[in-house]
Structures are given as C-alpha cells and as structure tokens.
C-alpha cells in the first residue's frame, strides 16, 4: 500500500490530499476533508446517497478509488452548491417544493438533478425519472423531487 | 375547507421545514457525520449458521492485528461482573453477544475494537468459530407447532412497559405471545354459514431500508457517567435499559440522538447501544460502531406473517370473522408481543361483525429479529381482511365499496373488543378513494404500452380499493418544556426524534401559535436525555398527538404568566387578551398592547431571563381480558386510511404496473398540510415496494439478498403515473388543534387494494406477497386449468406460509 498526494479542485478550491492507493473517494471527502454531505447508504453504488460530480458528471463516490482520479479533477459536493448565504437554484427548488424528508439522500439527489439539467434543460417527467432512477428516497419524496425538477427546467 | 379560512395563523399552514436549510446545504449532521475524538472503531463477527451451539470462538489471530485494542466474545461477556448480559423491551431474550448458541445467521458472536475501521474489520474477519449445527425453523406457522426446533428454553419478561407487564411466554414452544379476542360464537356461526371463505395470506420479512444505517458511539466519563450518541427512536428506553444493564443510576446515563436519516421503526428499543457501551466499558475508551448495509439486514426487519382468515356468510349477511395470525418474530422478540396483542386486536378489520374470533401469535424463528415497520403489523392483517371483503362481495353479488359501507365502523359503534369507536374517519376515507376510483372508470386513460408491447391485448386493467385501521399505542407519556426568551424567541425541549417526519416543525408551529410567535424564532431541540424531558418513544404515529398536546400544555403555562403581567401593566382583565405577533393586546381595544420584551421587563425588572412552562400528556387504555380481549377502552384513539389502485397486468409476462394510486388518510386536523400529504404519500411509495417486489429471501436459513444490488427499493420509475393523496380532516377532540398522527396510515390498505385490482383485471386471487410476475403468471395458469393439482400459492423457496 503506498501513500501519495493528489491535486484536485474540490468545490472550486485547489486542494492537495494525501491518500492511499485503496482510499475511496467517499472516505477521502468525509474523513480527510471533513466534507460530510456525501453519505454511505449501501457501499455498492446502488442508492445514490454518495453521489458527487466528477467534472460535472455524477458518480458513486463509494465505488471510486481516489487514486484513479485524473490530476486536477473537479469534484463537486453539496457543500459547494451555495455561494455563501445565497443558495443554488437547485437548493432553493428542493427547499420550496419540500423535496426531502429525512434528507439522507438529498445531497446526492440535488447533484444528480444538476447533472440532469446540464444535459437536458427541459426534461419531461419520464426523462427525469429515468435519469434519477438510481437515486433512492426511502421517505418517498419522489413527486416533490420531480416538482423541483419542473421548477428548474426551462430555457 | 380552504386553508385561507382557517382560524390559526401558524398551525394549519404549509410552513417550510425548519431544518430544511441545513438539509439542502448538506450540513445536517447525522450520527456518522460526527467526530468522536479518540474513539475506537468496532467491527463484529457474525454467525454463519441459523441455529447452532457455539463450541469455540478463536480470537487469537484477530488479537494480533496491529491496532486492535480488544476482541470480545459472548463467553467474555458472561465473565464480566455487574453487566446484565441480555436485553429486550418485552422479554430479556437477546444477548449482547451470542453465548451458548446462535439463533440466526448474522447474529453477532464477537466484537473487535481497534484504532481504525480497517484494522477492526480485518480482525473481525479473522475470528473463527466452531459450531454444532442444530435443526432450524424459518416458517412461523411451523415454528408454532409442538416439536419444532426450540429457540429459547425460558423467557424473562422485561417489565419495561405497562402493556407488556403480564407477558409470560409459552414455555416449551416458540410462541412468545398469544393474544385472544372473542365476541359471540364465531365457530358456531361458521358451522351454520351458507358460505365459508377460508384463505391463508403470507407476507415475507422486509427491510426498513432506512438509507442511514444504524450507528452508535459511547464512552464512560471519569466519574462513571455513560454518554451515548445513537440512532434511536427511543432515547428514554435506551437510557433506562443501559442503566439496568450496567447497574448505574438513570441520571448517570446520557443518551443523545441526532436527526435520523430515516427509520420507519428500524431503530427502535436497543439495537447497537448495549454492545457499544459494553465495548466502551471493556476498553475504557470511547468507541463507535457504524453498520454496513448488509449488517442492517441482520439487525431488524418487518415481521413476516402467515394470516389465516375465515369469513362466514349466511342469508346474505356476513355473520362470522375468524383470524389466526402468526407473526414471525425472528430470533428475538423485540416488540413483537405488543404487535400480536395490540395489532392482533384489529385483525377482524374495521367492521361490525356479530361473531368474531382472533388468535394472534408472535412466534420465534431462526432469522433476523423483527420489529415494527410503519404500520405495526397492520398491513399483514389488512391483506387478509380486505381481500376477503372483495371475495365476500363476489359471493353476495354486491359492489365491494357498497359492502364495506354496510359494515364499516362508525362513530359510537362498539368494536368486537367491546371498546367504543370514537372519531374514526373510515367512511370518509372510503368515500374519498372510491370517488377517485369510480371517476377513473368513467374516464379511463388510454394505456401506454411498455417497450416491446405492441398489442393492447396483452394488457389487462383493473381497479381495487381497500380500507385499513389502527389504534394508537396506549398508554404512553410525553413531556415537553417550553422556554420563552425576552426577545420573543423560544426553545421547545422535546425528546421526540426527528427522522424526516417533520415533528420538530410541527411542534414549533404549535408553540408559535400558542404564544403568538414567529415560527422561525422557535427552536425545537433534538433528544438529549440530559436536556429533554421524558417521552415514551417516537413511533406508532403518536408524536403529533401526544407531544403536541404536551407542547400546548407547556406553552399555556407561559401564556398565563404573560397575560398575568400584561393584565397588571395595562389594567385590563386577562381574559380580554390575545397573543399575536409577539405582543399581547386587548381584543376590544387593539391599541392597548404590550410586546413580549416589555412584559419581561415589567415582570422581572431586567431582561435576559426566561419564562418556563412544562406540559405532560398521557394516553390511556384499559387492559383487555386475556381470554376474550374485551376492554372498555382499548386505545387512546384510532387511525383510518384507505387506498385505491388501478393496475395494468401484462398477461404475457405477469408484470404488474400500478398506474394510479390513491391514498386517503384521516389526519384529524393537519398541523402542516403539506407534511401530512408527504407522510401519507411516502408511506404509500414504500409500501408499493412491499407489494410488488421487496422480500428478504431466506435460503437454507440464510439471507441471500442482503444488499441493495439484490434487494431493490421503490424507485422513481415505480411511481404510478397518477399518485394522489387525499387528506381527510375529521377533527379529533382530544388532539392538539384536532390533530392525530399520520405516519403509518398510507401503508395499511395498499397491498389489498393492489391485489383486488389484479383480481379485477385478470380474475385471480393472489395470497402471497409480494405479487411478483412469477406468482401472477402461475396463478393465471392455474386459473385457466393449465396446471391442475398445483396449489394456488406462490410461496418462496423456503416456504413463507403454512403448507
């Protein structure tokens, strides 16, 4: 097992992080950087609670070895969404539409919604359901999440 | 009623969740997000056998892993002086670590404490155990028979709850509870009936699957106080049991519970706490334990059940209802005895039948211990009594909705327990779902065909409805403290656990309404037994009602003090006053007002102090006769709910798609209407998975799908095209602002609504949950006579139902 230091851009900030070869991105964020918004719900990439954006694309951070990240890769977590006091539109939409209950899934869900809208700014409900299907909300806030997507979609 | 017309300024309005901003910022701290400085990590070794004598547990290799501080087994546990080795809310039947024998595959047999998680996990994997296998039993019906492999030689009642004081168990059997209800003579009425319907319905164990796994951290302070942070719905039960387990005073145990990432009954009573605290004691260090998803499957599940039901029909009337239900407790009883007693009492269904007989058993089997899951055993009964209502309607040639209207319990009726039924909105819920389903029939949407389906003829559509009801857990107690600050902000101290249901927002609304405050200036604490007064538990849809009433009581004490001082200051009698927008003012002379800060100055001569109020609310029930279940008051109040489903059945693949789902629930009065809708809808979304595909599959006594890769949950694409939730408001006189709880009502009737809809579509009666495509196809084949002689049952390989 070897240690090394990698350079990443995390929530817009250049960071150098010491990792081992087998450090998972999720553990790196949570344990090394104290960024706790990505959460471990299943450890097999099936629930979406650990989703972060890698260069804008949603990935399961519980399956991603940090050592395989390209140098300088951009990682976005839910902590980086707001600009100080000002919430990101996806956060506003989730808040206003009540798109969560316990909110364990919310960080991953919001990032997935951002990625969806970056790919398709006007998704139909069916398109949104298909895109988000890998994200579980056990509290069952799916209709409100779709309302949040509708609120955000548009040219 | 329109929201604009309601008389309150905060209660009854769609206030946004007060914890919402932290949640969308990703900074809500769940247990696993907290840092416990210096804490060792725990990892567990678990049994690989469903039932076996433990011959030897070899921990030598584990102890040699660098960073390991302690390795501890059940044998070691027995050698620790002054620690009670077993726990449980009904019976003290569950060992902190298995000793002597294991009773399910996945049961913890040893714990490792190490400096980091990797070392703990590596060491736990090196623990080797030798076993002598014993015969095991998985089916609750078989386990209840004499001669079945016996899990427990003797049972020690826990004596922790008033309603579970009289438990004794049934020595020599696996039955830990047998609840009986008798009214009239059901056997005679069945013998004399023109038609007797008799069926057995089975539900497999399913997982709560709260996305946040269980976790706990604990340490002993130098003075001997035990500090525990845990994911629990029952901080005060945990405090009491830990004090008893470790022989210390209640005041020397502090239980802190952060907001939970879902729970639904899965984090109740003792889960990880006894073991975590034991390891803190053994190592004299802080320790923390965070379960993996697989381990969550080994920690709790919903009771599987086999429900046998008989319905007698004579001269065009339903004359008898008999039910025998076998709740599958798994290896340890947890709160199963209460489910058998309390929920067993509702087994006949929400109807007036003259002759009733119920036998509800809670039975040990060799699997993961079962616990309550959103509905407390009601859905396992409703599948039987609501499918039978439709079967009876077929025989009686009546419309299923009309038949229900004929028998449904209404205000003032006596239930078959002899208890009067009060404030029960069953008919309103029935009307609500039947209206929507009937409207569908005039106006059916054109079907959309799935991929690969080109011909309409493969799709059969049907509709079904069902009712459900439940009694609130009684007796229980809630206490609340409200502290008003001189600036018009307030703190509500409550031990209700926030797990996504929105309890904290509801209590803030209630306190704000009572004291005329800005709801955003009310802070509701999360449970900390050093700070929040006693509450029995957060479960069973009881918090809005019980804790809500306690908050009102506390706030009204403060209100009296405010009015007293305002009355002196303004020289106006206090009955003339109203509190609104942080001011006390006279109703007749609105210009005569005094703001809260001024009242504090008048009262105390200085700012900075607080006004404190304390509220207590206790629900009541009268213990039932053990032979007949008769009682003048079986519960504090009732819950009613109904579901309506429209399904499309693919007759070639057996795939069932729920295209329209209507849920209706009587919430009394909604404190926060939007949150009520979310609760009912969320309960329905979860239950959809239990109806269609979720099942903890046991093969050869072992769970074979303990991962989200093999145990899927309801996801976006499972959502019905139309997903409608209708809140019925039938005020409950004793409720806070007329409110009752709402967390479970959406779960009760959904499965039978779907089964009834499938019958409407393809003329088959399914009896084994979940209704997978294989079961649908098999039943259709059998109905068409293609497979004569085969039983119309889709029992899972291990046999979830009686043969």
Task: Explain the layout of strands and helices.
The complex is a heterodimer of chains A (155) and B (803).
Chain A: E1 3-10, E2 13-20, H1 25-32, E3 51-54, E4 57-60, E5 74-76, H2 89-97, H3 106-119, H4 125-132, H5 142-152
Helix pairs in contact in A: 2-5
Chain B: H1 20-24, E1 40-46, E2 52-58, H2 60-63, E3 68-73, H3 74-79, E4 86-87, E5 94-95, E6 101-102, E7 108-114, H4 117-126, E8 128-133, H5 140-143, E9 175-183, H6 186-191, E10 195-203, E11 215-220, E12 226-230, H7 235-246, E13 253-256, H8 273-283, E14 287-290, H9 293-297, E15 301-302, E16 304-314, E17 317-330, H10 336-343, E18 355-364, E19 370-371, H11 378-396, H12 400-407, H13 426-442, E20 459-471, E21 477-485, E22 490-493, H14 503-515, E23 522-524, H15 543-570, E24 577-580, E25 583-586, E26 593-595, H16 596-604, E27 610-618, E28 638-650, E29 656-666, H17 673-692, E30 698-699, E31 702-703, E32 722-728, H18 750-762, H19 773-783
Parallel strand pairs in B: 1-14, 12-13, 15-19, 17-18, 22-23, 29-32
Antiparallel strand pairs in B: 1-7, 2-6, 2-8, 3-7, 4-5, 9-18, 10-16, 11-12, 11-14, 16-17, 20-28, 21-22, 21-27, 24-25, 25-26, 28-29, 30-31
Helix pairs in contact in B: 7-8, 11-18, 14-15, 15-16
Protein model, in words:
The complex is a heterodimer of chains A (155) and B (803). Helices cover 32% and strands 17% of the residues of chain A. Chain A has 155 residues and is an alpha+beta fold. Chain A folds into 2 domains: 3-80, Beta-grasp domain (Ubiquitin-like (UB roll)); 89-152, Orthogonal Bundle (DNA polymerase, domain 1). In chain A, helix 2 crosses helix 5. Chain A is globular, with a radius of gyration of 15 Å. The N and C termini of chain A lie far apart (49 Å). In chain B, the strands form 9 sheets. Chain B has a 7-stranded mixed β-sheet with strand order 3-7-1-14-11-12-13, with helices on both faces. A 5-stranded mixed β-sheet of chain B has the order 9-18-17-16-10. A 4-stranded mixed β-sheet of chain B has the order 20-28-29-32, with helices on both faces.
């Amino acid at each position: 097992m070897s240690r090394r230091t990698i350079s990443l851009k995390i929530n817009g900030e250049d960071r150098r992080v010491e990792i081992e070869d087998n450090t998972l991105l999720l553990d790196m964020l949570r344990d090394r950087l104290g960024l706790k918004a990505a959460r471990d719900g299943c450890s097999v990439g099936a629930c979406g609670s650990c989703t972060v954006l890698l260069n804008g694309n949603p990935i399961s951070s519980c399956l991603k070895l940090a050592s395989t990240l390209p140098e300088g890769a951009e990682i976005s977590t839910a902590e980086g969404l707001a600009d100080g006091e000002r919430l990101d539109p996806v956060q506003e939409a989730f808040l206003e539409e009540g798109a969560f209950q316990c909110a364990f899934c919310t960080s991953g869900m919001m990032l997935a919604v951002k990625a969806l809208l970056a790919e398709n700014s006007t998704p139909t409900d069916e398109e949104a359901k298909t895109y988000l299907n890998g994200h579980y909300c056990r509290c069952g806030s799916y209709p409100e999440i779709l309302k949040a997507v509708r609120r955000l979609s548009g040219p | 009623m329109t929201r604009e017309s309601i008389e309150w300024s905060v209660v009854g309005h769609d206030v946004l969740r007060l914890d919402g901003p932290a949640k969308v910022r990703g900074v809500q701290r769940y247990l696993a997000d907290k840092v416990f400085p210096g804490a060792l990590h725990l990892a567990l070794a678990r049994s690989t056998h469903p039932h076996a004598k433990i011959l030897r547990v070899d921990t030598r290799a584990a102890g040699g892993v660098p960073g390991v501080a302690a390795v501890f087994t059940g044998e070691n546990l027995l050698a620790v002086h002054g620690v009670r080795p077993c726990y449980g809310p009904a019976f003290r039947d569950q060992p902190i670590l298995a000793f002597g024998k294991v009773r399910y595959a996945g049961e913890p047999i040893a714990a490792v404490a190490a400096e980091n998680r990797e070392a703990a996990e590596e060491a736990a994997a090196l623990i080797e155990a030798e076993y002598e296998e014993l015969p095991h039993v998985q089916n609750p019906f078989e386990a209840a028979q004499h001669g079945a492999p016996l899990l427990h030689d003797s049972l020690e009642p826990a004596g922790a709850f008033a309603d579970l004081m009289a438990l004794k168990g049934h020595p020599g059997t696996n039955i830990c509870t047998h609840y009986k209800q008798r009214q009239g003579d059901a056997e005679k009425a069945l013998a004399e009936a023109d038609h007797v319907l008799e069926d057995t319905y089975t539900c497999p164990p399913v997982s709560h699957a709260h996305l946040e796994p269980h976790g706990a951290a604990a340490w002993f302070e130098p003075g001997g106080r035990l500090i525990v942070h845990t994911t629990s719905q029952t901080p005060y039960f945990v405090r009491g049991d830990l004090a008893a387990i470790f022989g210390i005073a209640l005041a020397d145990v502090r239980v802190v519970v952060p907001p939970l990432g879902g729970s639904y009954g899965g984090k109740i009573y003792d889960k990880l706490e006894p073991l975590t605290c034991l390891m803190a004691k053994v190592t004299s260090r802080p320790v923390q334990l965070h379960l993996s998803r697989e381990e969550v499957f080994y920690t709790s599940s919903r009771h599987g059940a086999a429900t046998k039901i008989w319905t007698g029909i004579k001269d065009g009337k339903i004359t008898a209802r008999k039910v025998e239900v076998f709740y599958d407790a798994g290896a340890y009883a947890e709160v199963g005895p209460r489910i058998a007693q309390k929920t067993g009492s509702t087994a006949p269904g929400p109807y007036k039948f003259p002759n009733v007989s119920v036998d509800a058993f809670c039975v040990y089997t060799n699997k993961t211990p079962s616990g309550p899951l959103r509905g407390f055993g009601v859905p396992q009964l409703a599948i039987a009594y609501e499918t039978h209502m439709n079967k009876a309607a077929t025989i009686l040639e009546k419309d299923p909705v009309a038949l229900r209207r004929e028998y449904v319990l209404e205000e003032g009726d006596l239930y078959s327990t002899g208890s009067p039924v009060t404030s029960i909105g069953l008919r309103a819920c029935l009307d609500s779902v039947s209206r929507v389903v009937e409207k569908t029939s005039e106006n059916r949407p054109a079907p959309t065909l799935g991929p690969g389906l080109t011909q309409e003829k493969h799709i059969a559509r049907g509709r079904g409805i069902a009712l459900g009801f439940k009694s609130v857990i009684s007796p229980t107690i809630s206490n609340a403290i409200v502290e008003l600050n001189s600036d018009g902000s307030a703190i509500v101290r409550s031990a209700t656990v926030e797990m996504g249901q929105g309890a904290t927002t509801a209590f803030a609304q209630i306190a704000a309404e009572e004291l005329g405050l800005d709801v955003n200036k009310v802070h509701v604490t999360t449970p900390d037994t050093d700070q929040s007064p006693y509450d029995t538990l957060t479960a069973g849809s009881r918090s809005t009602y019980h804790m809500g009433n306690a908050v009102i009581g506390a706030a009204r004490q403060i209100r009296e003090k405010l009015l007293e001082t305002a009355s002196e200051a303004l020289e106006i009698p206090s009955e003339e006053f109203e509190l609104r927008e942080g001011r006390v003012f006279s109703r007749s002379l609105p210009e005569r007002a005094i703001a809260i800060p001024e009242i504090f100055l008048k009262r105390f001569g200085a700012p900075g102090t607080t006004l404190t109020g304390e509220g207590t609310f206790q629900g009541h029930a009268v213990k039932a006769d053990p032979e007949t279940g008769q009682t003048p008051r079986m519960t504090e109040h009732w819950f009613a709910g109904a579901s309506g489903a429209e399904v499309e059945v693919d007759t070639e693949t057996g795939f069932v798609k729920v295209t329209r789902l209507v849920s209706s629930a009587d919430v009394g009065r909604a404190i926060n209407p939007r949150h009520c809708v979310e609760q009912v809808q969320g309960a329905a979304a979860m239950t959809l998975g239990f109806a269609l595909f979720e099942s903890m599959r046991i093969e050869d006594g072992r769970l074979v799908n303990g991962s989200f890769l093999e145990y899927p949950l309801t996801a976006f694409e499972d959502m019905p095209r139309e997903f409608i939730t209708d809140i019925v408001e039938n005020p409950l006189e004793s409720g806070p602002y007329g409110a009752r709880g709402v967390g479970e009502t959406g779960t009760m009737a959904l499965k039978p609504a779907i089964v009834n809809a499938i019958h409407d579509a393809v003329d088959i009666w399914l009896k084994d949950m979940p209704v997978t495509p294989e079961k649908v196809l098999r039943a259709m084949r059998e109905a068409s006579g293609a497979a004569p002689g085969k039983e119309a049952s889709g029992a899972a390989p291990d046999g979830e139902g009686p043969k």
